[in-house]
Structures are given as structure tokens and as C-alpha cells.
Write a structure and sequence with these properties.
The complex is a heterodimer of chains A (about 525) and B (about 220). Chain A has about 525 residues and is mainly alpha-helical. Chain A is about 50% helix and about 5% strand. A 3-stranded antiparallel sheet of chain A has the order 1-7-6. In chain A, β2 and β3 form a beta hairpin. In chain A, α14 packs antiparallel against α15. Chain B is built from 9 helices and 4 strands, in the order αββββαααααααα. The chains are: A mainly alpha (about 525), B alpha+beta (about 220). Chains A and B meet through α9 of A and α1 of B. The structure holds zinc ion (ZN) (4 copies). The site of one zinc ion (ZN) has 7 residues of chain A, from α12.
């Protein structure tokens, strides 16, 4: 990690490309996968180049974060000529924005120090000595907190005042600080015990007052606070993962035109913008938040839609959905229909797969208020249904794949194929799942999208991808495990999977570029 | 450290007993030095003047590093005090607590809270609504409560309203800060009086606010 020295720990909060090597962490992990895929599907080129809507980022470990912090503190320490502890406290107060800190500090050092809870420059406490100010000692002293009396001599050794001069005994300081750290989880903002005094208790006296266990906890909390305070850092939200993503290209103000999806070293995606623990491309964070709130508010009305069983529209026998594919065939009467709209599958033929668009006109002749609110609910349900269905299908696809993995192992021996040759099925399932996640969010997008001549193109792309996904999903479900037809199946699935990938790229590319070109407007 | 806690609380009780000027009292209820009752007179020139307010004091294990727990025993009509439970919304009883604050200084802060309500951070939303929308009505209700629950003398508060030293009986409508006309308007329709009072109180059916409330909305609530 530290092989290339200084460059590696470049730490910038401004929009700045320097110091980032996108190949190093973000794409590096996936190269082996991509190579394996290339062998099987010659239509796919090398890993795609960086697109204008992609962000550079790095996956960091806690150790790297600590090193970054130290480096930043050292920089400020030498620039402002203050002790390290003071530099750290100042940086924390200015949310690690060292430019802003320097500006304020050079403008008015006293104000900068005092507002950060530090002693003004002349006070002895800005030096490394946090010990009693000479003015107050030595004379007998009663601690106002525990009401214990201290002799002149004891006052010098057993009591402590910060630069503000508020003196208390060390026992009380320790109990106070330990409580703040261990029960309240505080770190960088622990203040003097005096009522209304905002002087910060810095790391140096704290380390001296508490046991090494508490001191360790305190420094961990400081590090955690560093990650949550710095706008260019975010914890990976996936359970058990302790990595931190660093990205300076997705500040809050950019989130109206960027969807900064990143992949952590744990293998999972997340959104750097909002912390959503998966990709929510192509929808921007703000709309995702609205959608999630709406879904939570309307969950009761929408619940029935997620039910796992439906009746065949022809023979009324119950059909359970066991794969992600929406092309359903009733086991009893062989009737083929679409799971989403329950219409005959034949009508979803190649010419007009119309399952993605809500027909606004169908309800437009209803004029009264009740019909209108009913229509708005129906409109929401139309999109929600498709959103939820793709989420559900992606899960089923993953389960389905697990159950057929055994059969693939059999294939390996009976059809005399190499391990790499049977990977086509796994790759195809991965392709389907990724495409379904994008399709899922595309319905959230469509729900809020203001209609203009650009939205039609969006819906066409959505429909093309959806059709490609359903075709591939159907092939996977029908055929995996059929050892006899393995060569044909492999060819078919590989081709279909390459096509899905292509449609997926087209939809993503066009939609994400659309934000940069201000093509999308939302009705919220 | 529990020695320190006991030492400190005992000293606080002693010091408070010695101080005759502040009019704050802190007494033990039984043998337990960590469960006390504090009391102070209502501040002058407020609706609470002349009343005497008792406060339940619970001292946690972690005192004085964690704030003392206090709530009014005496019922108080005030935006920052729950009219039902006596719970208090005050910053120093929460995040703004400091270990140098004492039981006495906290009771003094409660006394000044009676003097200066903070309606933006209410404990009792109904009372806060009353305070914000109909100040004169609020003051008169708070006075009624002081007389009924805090032994505030009636003659001083009522001024010329009651003649000849006779005490006027305060109605349930007045205690709720509602006009008798509003209450009887709905009681006459056949609703039970306590229900009418509770609904009108919740809807802040008072003063100018009455014109903002549709009568049908009140009826809907009453039928619930
Ligand atoms: Zn002490
Ligand atoms: Zn201080
Ligand atoms: Zn991770
Ligand atoms: Zn996001």
C-alpha cells in the first residue's frame, strides 16, 4: 500500500484529480473477472474507459486513514506553527478543511483558536504543557465537584486546569472524561467541566488522565469522527466491512448530475453520495430518497403486489414464481403470460413489448377528484410494481443460480468441460442481476421523470434492456442442467448475455450523460 | 466515587439550609439522600406569583457527571412543563448540564424558567399553543392553576373581580383555559362535558383561533 510513498497518501478535499490512480483500486480487483469473461464472450472489449459521469475513488483501510490524518495535522502544524494537538483540534473544528482553517487563522488567530475551544495564543496552554496555570497555585483548594480539600502541595500535583483556568481535581476530570468517552461516545468535542465554558479537552491531557484501554477507545472515536466529518470520506455500509471510500469528485453540490456508484474492496457496491448500500444508478440520490420515503408511506397499499403467488389468468390454478423471469408458463394449462401485467406473453413479442410504460391516457377521461387520486395511486403502483418485481427477480435469480450450481459441476465432468468453460452460466446470471438492478431503478426514475421528447428515448432503452433481460432469464431458467444440449446452450446464453450487457451499457450511458447535458427534469 | 457523590449531596443540602436569602429549600423525604424534594416560591410578576412549587429530585449514580433528574410535583400550567406529568424541558437538565451545577442552581433555573418560558422548545404542546395564540387567556389559566394547586392566594390574583373576600369557584372550563360559552355550545348538543373540554383543549379552541376551526371538524373529533 505504501510502495509509492507520498503520492499514495495525497489528501485533498477540493475537486482535484491529483493523487488518484483510478486503475489502482477501483478497477484493479475486477480485472481478473473481466479477463475470464473476455475468453467466453469475444463481443466484450476490455474494461471500459473512464466515463465523464464516473468518479475516481480509492478504497482505504483504517491505517491509511490514520496516516492521512497525521499527515494533515503535520502540514497544518508547520504552516501555522502550533503544537500537533492544537492543529488537530483546529482541523476538527473546521471539518478538516485546511484551506478554510488557514484563511480564518491568518485573518484572526485568536478568534480561530477560541472558537475551536482552544486557548488564545498568549496563554500557556497552547504550548504542549496542559498543567496547572501558575496563577492559581499553589494554595489550598476545594474541588467544587467532589468537595474534597487539597493542600497547597496536593493542588500542584492532584488538580488540573485547562487554559481557561477552571480547576478541578484529577479524580473528577478522569471520571468525567471516561464517562464522555465510554458512555456518550464523545471524542473531539469534550468540553471543560465548568458550566458554559467551551474550552476543549485535548488529546494530550485525556491520554494522561485515562487508562490505556479508554485512551485507545478515544483515539478510535477520533478516527471515526474524522471519517464522518471529512466530506471526501465515507464508511463502507456493508456489514463486517471496515473499509473507507475516499472520493473528492462527488461533493454534495454535484449530486444533481452525478450518481457516484463505487465498488468497495469487500466486493459490494455503494453510493458514495448518500451511502445507499448498493448501486442506485441511473437515479440521482435526491430522487432515491423521495422514492424510498414514498414506498415506506405507501407500503401497505403496495404490499399485496409483492405476493409470491398469482393465479393463472386462464385456468386459475396457483402459480408460484420460482425464477426471476417474467415470462410465465402455467404448469397445468401451458398458458404463457407476463408476470407483471398478467397479459398474454404472445403480445409481448419482439414487435411491441409494452410492459414498461404507464399509459397516462387510459385514465385521463376520469375527471372527478376520486378518480384522479385513484389514478395517481395506480400510476404509482404501475412503477412500484415493476420496481419491486425487478428487485424480487434479482434475488430469485441469485437463489436459482445457487441451486443449479451443482448441476454445473456435473456438467463439468459429464460434458468434459473445463472449469472456465462452465463459468458462462455464472457470468450470465451476474449480468442478469446487474441489469435488473438498473432496470429496477429505471422505474423509480420514470416515475418522477417529467415527460418531454427525451423521455421517450429513455423508455425505449428501458424496454429494450428489459426484453433482453427477460429473454436471457428465460433461457437460463429453462435450460441449465440439460447436459445433452450444452454446447448449443452455451452459445445461446453467451450471445444473449453479451446483448444484455450491450443494452445495459446503452441505457446507463445515455441516462447518466443526460444529467450532465441537463436533459432530465423531475416532477416532485 | 459513590463516597464523593454522597459527600457532595450532603454538602449541597447543608449549604442550601444555611442560605436564607435564596428561598430555595431542599429536603430529604426519608433516609435516602438521593431522593429529595426541592421547593421555591413562584417568581413575582408572573401568573405563578404567590404559589409554592415542589419539585421531585432524583440523583443518579453518576451524579454530578450526569444531570440530576427533576420534575414538578406541583401542577404547573407552563409551555415547558408537562401539565399531566410535571416533566420539564430545560437544556441544563440534558446536554447543557455541567458537573459544577448544583441542586440549588438547578432549582433557581427552574424558577427563572417560570419567569421566561421557551415556547419554541415546548414540553406540553397544548399549553404552548395556548401561550402562543392567546396570551391573556394563558395567563389567566396559569393563575387559576397556581391558586388551585400551588396555594396562591385568590384575592391578590383576582383583583376586583371577586367582591367581599368571598372566593369564586373556578370552573373546569376555566382550568382548561376555555370559555364557558365554547364548552356549553357543544355540551348543549349532547356531548359529555369532560370529552368536550379535552377535545377543545387539544384543538386550541380559544380566542381568535376559534374562527380558524371549522365546527364540523370539532364535531368529527367529538364523535370519535
Ligand atoms: Zn474533585
Ligand atoms: Zn473552563
Ligand atoms: Zn466494503
Ligand atoms: Zn446515492
Amino acid at each position: 500500500m505504501s510502495s509509492d510513498g507520498e503520492e499514495e497518501f495525497e489528501f485533498e478535499f477540493e475537486d482535484d484529480d491529483e493523487g488518484f490512480d483510478p486503475e489502482a483500486d477501483s478497477a484493479g480487483e475486477s480485472i481478473s473477472d473481466a479477463e475470464a469473461f473476455d475468453i467466453m464472450s469475444p463481443t466484450l472489449e476490455e474494461p471500459p474507459e473512464k466515463k465523464p459521469y464516473d468518479v475516481n475513488y480509492r478504497v482505504r483501510t483504517m491505517q491509511e486513514i490514520m496516516d492521512m490524518q497525521t499527515k494533515e495535522v503535520k502540514k497544518v502544524q508547520s504552516l501555522l506553527e502550533v503544537p500537533a494537538d492544537t492543529a488537530a483540534t483546529l482541523l476538527r473544528y473546521y471539518a478538516w478543511n485546511s484551506e478554510k482553517l488557514q484563511e480564518q487563522f491568518w485573518n484572526d488567530p485568536t478568534a480561530a483558536l477560541v472558537s475551536a475551544g482552544l486557548s488564545p495564543p498568549s496563554s500557556p496552554s497552547t504550548s504542549t504543557q496542559p498543567l496547572p496555570s501558575p496563577l492559581a497555585s499553589p494554595r489550598p483548594f476545594e474541588c467544587p465537584i467532589c468537595c474534597m480539600d487539597y493542600t497547597k502541595e496536593q493542588t500542584a500535583t492532584q488538580t488540573l486546569a485547562l487554559g481557561c483556568g477552571h480547576r478541578f481535581c484529577r479524580g473528577c476530570w478522569t471520571e468525567y472524561v471516561v464517562g464522555k468517552i465510554t458512555t456518550e461516545g464523545e471524542s473531539g468535542r469534550i468540553q471543560c467541566m465548568e458550566s458554559g465554558c467551551s474550552r476543549i479537552v485535548r488529546a494530550e491531557p485525556i491520554d494522561e488522565l485515562v487508562t490505556s484501554d479508554v485512551s485507545k477507545k478515544y483515539h478510535n472515536l477520533l478516527n471515526q469522527a474524522f471519517v464522518s466529518d471529512a466530506p471526501s470520506l465515507r464508511w463502507c455500509p456493508h456489514p463486517g466491512c471496515e473499509h473507507i471510500i475516499e472520493c473528492s469528485q462527488a461533493p454534495q453540490k454535484m449530486l444533481n448530475q452525478l450518481v457516484p456508484t463505487v465498488t468497495c474492496r469487500c466486493g459490494n457496491d455503494l453510493c458514495f453520495g448518500c451511502g445507499y448500500p448498493a448501486s442506485h444508478r441511473p437515479v440521482i440520490c435526491r430522487i432515491v430518497k423521495l422514492w424510498e420515503k414514498k414506498c415506506a408511506d405507501d407500503s401497505e397499499t403496495a404490499n399485496w403486489l409483492q405476493a409470491n403467488t398469482k393465479e393463472c389468468t386462464k385456468c386459475q390454478s396457483t402459480i408460484e414464481k420460482n425464477g426471476g423471469c417474467n415470462h410465465m408458463t402455467c404448469k397445468k394449462c401451458k398458458w404463457e403470460f407476463c408476470w407483471v401485467c398478467m397479459g398474454p406473453w404472445s403480445e409481448h413479442g419482439t414487435a411491441w413489448y409494452q410492459c414498461n410504460r404507464f399509459d397516462e391516457k387510459s385514465g385521463s377521461d376520469n375527471r372527478d377528484h376520486q378518480a384522479k387520486s385513484r389514478q395517481s395511486l395506480e400510476r404509482y403502483l404501475h412503477y412500484f410494481n415493476r420496481w419491486a418485481n425487478h428487485e424480487h427477480s434479482a434475488k430469485l435469480d441469485a437463489d436459482f443460480y445457487k441451486s443449479t450450481q451443482k448441476k454445473m459441476e456435473q456438467m463439468q465432468s459429464s460434458a468434459n468441460m473445463s472449469w472456465i468453460e462452465v463459468q458462462f452460466a455464472k457470468q450470465a446470471v451476474d449480468t442478469v442481476i446487474a441489469a435488473r438492478i438498473t432496470l429496477k431503478w429505471s422505474y423509480c426514475m420514470a416515475f418522477y421523470l417529467k415527460r418531454n421528447n427525451m423521455t421517450e428515448l429513455f423508455e425505449d432503452n428501458q424496454r429494450d434492456l428489459e426484453r433482453a433481460v427477460e429473454t436471457l432469464g428465460y433461457s437460463l431458467e429453462q435450460n441449465i442442467g440439460d447436459v445433452g444440449a450444452i454446447a448449443k446452450l452455451r452459445q445461446e446464453v453467451t450471445n444473449q448475455s453479451a446483448y444484455v450487457q450491450k443494452r445495459h451499457d446503452i441505457l446507463m450511458d445515455d441516462t447518466l450523460r443526460g444529467y450532465l447535458e441537463h436533459r432530465w427534469e423531475f416532477t416532485v | 466515587m459513590s463516597d464523593a457523590r454522597l459527600r457532595r449531596v450532603q454538602k449541597e443540602i447543608r449549604d442550601c439550609a444555611k442560605d436564607k436569602t435564596s428561598q430555595i429549600s431542599i429536603e430529604m423525604i426519608d433516609e435516602n439522600p438521593f431522593h429529595l424534594v426541592g421547593a421555591f416560591p413562584g417568581p413575582p410578576d408572573t401568573p405563578y406569583e404567590g404559589g409554592y412549587y415542589e419539585v421531585d429530585i432524583n440523583i443518579p449514580e453518576t451524579y454530578p457527571f450526569q444531570p440530576v433528574k427533576m420534575k414538578f410535583i406541583t401542577k404547573v400550567y407552563h409551555p415547558n412543563v408537562s401539565s399531566a406529568s410535571g416533566a420539564i424541558c430545560l437544556d441544563i437538565l440534558k446536554d447543557a448540564w455541567s458537573p459544577v451545577l448544583t441542586l440549588k442552581s438547578t432549582l433557581i433555573s427552574l424558577q427563572s424558567l417560570l419567569n421566561e418560558p421557551v415556547p419554541e422548545d415546548p414540553q406540553d404542546a397544548e399549553v404552548a399553543k395556548h401561550y402562543n395564540s392567546d396570551r391573556a387567556g394563558f395567563i389567566s389559566t396559569a393563575k387559576h392553576w397556581a391558586q388551585a394547586y400551588a396555594q396562591a392566594p385568590v384575592h391578590k390574583q383576582q383583583g376586583g373581580v371577586t367582591g367581599g373576600g368571598g372566593t369564586k369557584k373556578v370552573t373546569d372550563a376555566e382550568m382548561a383555559g376555555l370559555s364557558e360559552a365554547s364548552v356549553s355550545q357543544f355540551v348543549d348538543m349532547g356531548f359529555e362535558r369532560p370529552k368536550v373540554i379535552s377535545v377543545l383543549k387539544r384543538m386550541n379552541y380559544r380566542g381568535n383561533n376559534i374562527s380558524n376551526i371549522n365546527e364540523n371538524t370539532v364535531l368529527e373529533e367529538l364523535f370519535k
